[in-house]
């Protein structure tokens, strides 16, 4: 099931077209896929910035054209069996690294997705991108299989990292399986399956599995507005930051959640030049 298949399934279950994801999950991977519903779809671009965590099983000695178990085997070599060397090579990928996007990916090249070109047997030059691996921890080393946890920035291709690890070891490798365990603040433990979502909807308990917009970006500071300040914000007008939150200390251009007196999300704004400027407004002005 692709990420788009999941979106379509949720649209059917919730009977709404306004459903979107916050970053694709490889078809061969399982785990957390954060979806936005209704007006919260306008939050997706901010949620896409979140770092991600995975549990991965690395298969040494076999290279595939996709970097995972769903691709065609292109080479077999004797796997590396020295766990100390395997750990050393894996840990060498921690930090800022340059990563070449795989051909089987959604990256654009001259107006087309790379995976579309790959299906036609076409390979094109790609430009390496800087990504960050914040943490990589080996859980079990039993060559030719190695289990590890990784936390990385958005845009990191874990299956490409597995391929690169194999090349650095000189034996080739691919990701035998991947489970995304976290996206930003959202974990696998608090996620629900499509079947569980259907059950909650049928029982009238949808609110149990939906996160309110005001809680969707837990790392973003929030301010409360009322009266004329509320009216200005929902009309898209900037307001003096000192009037909204005189004690709020945030770096320039920081994102700020604007809430009403009931704690509901009114808007997302940025603190710029001593003012709070609305970026996305979620509620209409109060009627007179």
End-to-end C-alpha gap: 48 Å
Encode the helix/strand succession as letters: HEEEHEEEHEEEHEEHEEHEHEHEEE
Q: Indicate the CATH architecture of the largest domain.
A: 2-Layer Sandwich
Q: Give me the count of strands.
A: 18
Strands, helices and their partners?
Blueprint lengths: L2 H12 L4 E3 L8 E2 L3 E3 L6 H4 L4 E9 L1 E3 L8 E4 L6 H9 L3 E5 L8 E2 L2 E2 H6 L9 E14 L2 E8 L5 H12 L3 E11 L2 E2 L6 H9 L19 E3 L2 H8 L4 E2 H4 L9 E6 L5 E8 L2 E7 L7
Parallel strand pairs: 2-12, 14-16
Antiparallel strand pairs: 1-3, 4-11, 4-12, 5-6, 7-10, 8-9, 10-11, 12-13, 15-18, 16-17, 17-18
In short:
By secondary structure, this protein is α+β, with helices and mostly antiparallel strands. It contains eight helices and 18 strands.
Key structural traits:
Pseudouridine synthase; Archaeosine Trna-guanine Transglycosylase, Chain: A, domain 4; 8 helices; 288 residues
């Amino acid at each position: 099931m692709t990420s788009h298949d999941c979106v379509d399934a949720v649209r059917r279950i919730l009977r709404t077209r306004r459903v979107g994801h916050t970053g694709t999950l490889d078809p061969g991977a399982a785990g957390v896929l954060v979806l936005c519903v209704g007006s919260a779809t306008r939050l997706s671009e901010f949620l896409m910035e979140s770092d991600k965590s995975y549990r991965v099983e690395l298969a040494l000695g076999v290279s595939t054209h996709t970097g995972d178990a769903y691709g065609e085997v292109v080479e077999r070599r004797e796997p590396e069996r020295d766990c100390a060397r395997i750990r050393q090579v894996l840990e060498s990928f921690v930090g800022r690294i340059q990563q070449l996007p795989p051909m089987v990916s959604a990256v654009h090249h001259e107006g087309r997705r790379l995976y579309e070109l790959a299906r036609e047997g076409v390979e094109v030059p790609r430009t390496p991108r800087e990504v960050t691996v914040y943490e990589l921890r080996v859980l079990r080393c039993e060559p030719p299989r190695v289990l590890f946890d990784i936390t990385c920035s958005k845009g990191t291709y874990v299956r490409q990292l597995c391929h690169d690890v194999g090349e650095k070891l000189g034996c080739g490798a691919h990701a035998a399986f991947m489970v995304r365990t976290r996206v930003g603040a959202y974990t696998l433990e608090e996620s629900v399956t499509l079947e569980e979502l259907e059950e909650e909807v049928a029982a009238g308990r949808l609110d149990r599995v939906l996160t309110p917009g005001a809680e969707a970006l837990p790392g973003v500071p929030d301010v409360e507005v009322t009266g004329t300040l509320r009216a200005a914000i929902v009309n898209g007008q900037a307001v003096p930051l000192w009037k909204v939150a005189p004690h709020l200390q945030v770096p320039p251009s920081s994102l700020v959640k604007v809430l009403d007196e009931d704690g509901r999300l009114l808007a997302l704004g940025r603190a710029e030049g001593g003012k709070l400027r609305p970026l996305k407004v979620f509620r209409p002005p109060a009627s007179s």
